[in-house]
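Lab manual, section 2.4: Encoding a predicted structure.

Procedure: take the sequence of the chain (545 residues), apply the prediction step described in section 2.3, and record the output as structure tokens. A sample record is shown.
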Amino acid sequence: MVAGLIDHRLSEVEFTGVTDLPAAVQRSQVIVTATPATKPLIQADWVQPGTHLNAIGADMEGKQELDAKLFQRAQAYTDDVPQASEVGEIQNPIKAGVIKPEQVAEIGNALLDPTLGRHDENAITIFDSTGIALQDLAAANLAFVRAKEQGVGTQVDLSSKPIRRSTMKIKDFGVEQWMNEYETKAKYNLGETCVSSLSIRELCELVGVDVNDFAKQLVDRRLTYGAIEGAVELKEAITRLYQNLTPDEIVTEHGAIGANNLVLNALVEPGDEVIAVTPTYQQLQSIPEAIRATVKLLPLKRGNGYLPDAEQLRGLVSDKTKLIVLNNPDNPTGALMSQAGLQTIVDIAKSVDAYVLCDEVYRHLTQEDGYSPSIIDLYDKGISTSSFSKAFSLAGIRLGWLATHDQAVMKACLSYRDYETISCGQLDEMVGTLALKNQAVLLERNRGIVRENLKILEEWVHQQPHITWLKPKAGTTALLYYDFDLPSTIFCDRLMKEYETLLVPGSCFDIENSLRIGYAFETAHLRDGMNQLGKFLAKLEQEAR
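Recorded output:
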């Protein structure tokens, strides 16, 4: 109702921009200042008799909008004298000795005692607003009551509409918190998901670039913000990972985790319907839940090769479905959807005009040669997110991107991105550009690592009587099942404490009696870690007898 009253009043007000501030002040009867100024904007001799001023801008020591001399000619009011004396506008005339605190009237007292108000039409009055919540609430309630009595405005029932951000609660990020706790303490880290990481020197040597020349480029680069939406040269290199993509359809982010966060927050609103596969990277489910979307889970079942069941998905979608969320290749299972499988998802999404977000950080790390299709190769309302962390061995540059042909999505993401990113680091983008200009060389190296290591892991699994799995088709992770009556968190905690070996419990993905193992790091380290895991399994077998 109050909003309607305000709109009605403002419709009768004419707004005019001015360039001559003294003249504007001299012909104004009411003046409101709300700036971060630290020196007087309005001089005492500009203000005419009968003028009222609201001074709002001063909210800390050192701020000032009004000439202190003006208070010699004016009656001062404020909402709280002690507060205003320290951080409000009247701090300045008090410090200058122009007035004393006892000469300032509190607005609450002035409302109760008419003798404290204006008695002369030529009097100058100043209200120093520092903000007292109780007074604001009382004033707002009075405005509401009066508006309701007069029947003006529009009353809106918000009781059924959740507040989106101020009350947003999100689940603990299971896998990340587990890694935070143990990753730096492990001697044998089998939880690592990146392909064996490269130093800048190793990257330069791998792609045939003189390391000294590249180092000079790094140290000579001025550390400004750089290209806000991502370096053009980098985005041009990213386009070569897709079919029919332009640089304008890409924006860089702080890793794929930043890209996913950006897309979900920019697109999903409270009450929207989102369908997400499970198991997957928890972020893809928990952020929509925290935004208070209706999240429907599409389980990836072992019997179906951990691939989405098309008929089940058709039963989940509705006219309210705004977004379908995939992870391809999947983390933690290593399942890989074919182009035909992706096309089926696209056809279902089209039937309800839904977007499809696909986290593709493990894309290209396949066990067989050939191009791995992206969701945006097949669907104009598809959104791909990826990064340099997994397939390109450069997690340390904290750089990723989102790509989409849908300009409405891009516009929404860029608008939200202004609040949380501004730009990515110039040095990160320089390293990323060098890598993607030589993407074929990096991918050949990294595919070789994951293929060799997966064979080693497969041999080990076949030797373990208590371990079963479904061999991954792509990516860097696999899901191992064990047959001991032991919760996965206890299993992994004991493994860490007794054998200094890190695995991720399946409970982080809501799958008990399972473990996520990474296999894309150095081969010798993988062998050593599996040897420790084998010892622990033998110990558990002994305990079970």
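Check your result against the sample. The mean pLDDT is 92.
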